[in-house]
Structure formats: C-alpha cells, structure tokens
Input
Amino acid sequence: MSHIKTILVTGGAGFIGSNFILDWIAETGGKVINLDKLTYAGNLQNLASLENKPQYSFINGDINDHKLIEGLLTSHQPGAIVHFAAESHVDRSIHGPEDFIHTNVNGTFHLLEAARLYWTKLPGKQQTEFRFLHVSTDEVFGSLGPDDPPFTEATPYAPNSPYSASKAASDHLVRAYHHTYGLPVITTNCTNNYGPYQFPEKLIPLTILNALEGKSLPIYGDGRNVRDWLYVHDHCEALRIVLEKGRVGETYNIGGKCEKTNIEVVKIVCAILDELKSESNHAPHASLIKFVKDRPGHDHRYAMNIHKIEHELGWTPKESFDTGLHKTVEWYLGNLDWVEGISTGAYKKWVDTNYKDRAAL
Output
C-alpha cells in the first residue's frame, strides 16, 4: 500500500465511504480525492475533521460525468480508484428503481471507461501498480435457506431486488473490463455494515433514534430474516488490505462472521440503550417493538464464507457484535447534533412513505 500515494474515492461522503476516507488518512497519511454527488445519504459533516487537511480534497460531482472524471484522473494522477458510489437502500429501490440503474449501472460504466482510458496512458510501473477497487454487496447472491452453506466467491448471482440487480450488473461490468481490456480490478462483496455515520433509514440507527424518541421500532414480518453483521471499521481495514495485497481480477468476500436475526439485533440495541439510558421514560426500549408488513421479496438470509480473504490476505474481523454495537450506540448518543443535521424534512418524508402502508401485524 505504500506505493499508493493518492486515491480517488467515489461516494466518499456516504456511510462506508466517509469511514474509509477517515481511516485511510489516519492509517496511511495518503492523499484522497473524494468525488460525491451529495444525494440524500451523502453528508460532508462526516468528514468535517478533514476540511483543512492538505491530504483531502472534495469534488461535488456525478460518476456519470465522464469528462469530470477524466479531468480528475489527469490532474491528480491517483494510484487507485475506490468505488463506493451507489444507491444502496433496498426499500428505496422498490419505490424508485430508475435512480439505481442510473447510478449503479450507468455510473459504474462511465467510471470504468474513464479509468480504462487513464490507465492505458500510464507509464510502465504506474500502470502495473494501478488498481480499480469495486465495493459491492452480498445481496447479489440472493437468499439462503436456514441450513444452506454461506455464500462463497463462486456462488452464482441471483439478485432479488432492483438494488441487488443493479449491483450485480455493476459487478459484471467490472469483471468484463478486466477480462476484455486488462483493467486491474478487484471486487469485494461485503455483508451488512454498521457503525458511526450511518444514515438513519437503516435498521440499527433507525432503532437507536426511534427508541430515544419513544417511537415504535418497526420490524418487517416476523423479524427472523438473518444478516451477517460487519463493523464498518473492520470493513475499512479489509479494503486497505485488499488494495495492498489482493490479486488483480479476483473477488473477496468480506463478512463479520456474525449471523443475527433482525429481531435479535433490535433487542440487543434495546438492551444496550436500557443500560446506557436507564433514566429514559421509554425503557425498557424493547416494549416499543412493532411487527409490520414485510418488504416485497425480502431475502430470508445472507451469510458469507470469508475463508479466502482470511487465508490469502490474513484479514479477519476484530470487533465482536457486542463490542461493535456498544461503540455504535455510544457514538449516536454522543453525536445527536449530527443526527439532527441529517434528519431533514426529506428524510422524514421518506420514512413516512416507506412505513405508512405497513400495518402492524
């Protein structure tokens, strides 16, 4: 990784992207160019601590803007592109799939085209060392049954939502650009992330913030859908290692080795809040749980086999779910100003739209 002096990060104002940039600069001291369109989930407050750092630059722009990307690559000469930019919320993809095709498929295509043209003009060593790291999701593999073995890198794709289908398409484009043009790509597929700066439409921050306000904690269906949970800083470390040591053209699964049902997760969050906010009028917070109509096509279970990245690159998650979740709840409790800043009218309107027709079960 020491040879990578500058990276271009797409979607770096989002949840995982901003954590990655903060970790990258703290761990490597390298230069970061952050390209983000600043849609609803992008928040520059996540990166406020870097505003005056010479290693950090922010560009407000769209990955579909081919000329903009070409100009950034030419002027900054990055040694790697780390591609986070994506529409990423399943429920939003059900309500409005077009944005997901525009960003996740078309945007990835335009980014790959610009990267290919830039890479072909690099001198020998720079061309050899350049990397295009594409950050994807476990959802491209579809749904597992209760007793099925976890997904491996060889699991056939079977996406079940407009979101996962758009990410699957982007994965295939990235693979094709390596096999057709030789572009030095690496793809990672991660499980459900949680941690600081996550937009509060996702399960864990939504549970924390609703519980603090005494609002109901909506659980889809019977709450038995299973996800593998990964603390975001573990994910960021894995991505740095993949950039440093990953093999070109390969895919690496990144998971937390922590399968939990949604109802288990919510109950654990409530127990932590009971401990940390014992004076709350809403305790015990689990009393706020409400089961609601399920999401259409809701995948039953995701789980990752991470043998490849553990044995090939020496990475394994450091945080247990208990330690990572405690850190996450404590972060939200200590950063309510950040929460207030992103809880705009647009966000509240979205929550109303998503849950208004989900009658209690």
In short: The longest strand covers residues 131-137. The CA atoms of residues 23 and 237 lie 8 Å apart.
